[in-house]
Please model this.
Amino acid sequence: MKPYLMIVQVFYLLSLVPWFVIWGLSFMSFDSGINLSNVSFVLAISSYPVAVIICSIFAWFFRVKKNRFAIIINLIPMFWIIAFLGFISLNN
Model:
């Protein structure tokens, strides 16, 4: 269980480098004005590192007693990565 958590969280740590670039570029959505969809878009991108930190803490906390639950919690930030890869593949 420890190697799995460590490998996945190193992957999350490495994914924060391109996230920072994408996060900075996401503010360009306000060029056309401020509306609810732009704010939601930026908040969804901004919440990724928060999800990584919270899910990592809970996964390490639950790894001893509830292995399956810890794995599920640790995979929650993967939704952001899958969604990003899906958007990139649709635009190519």
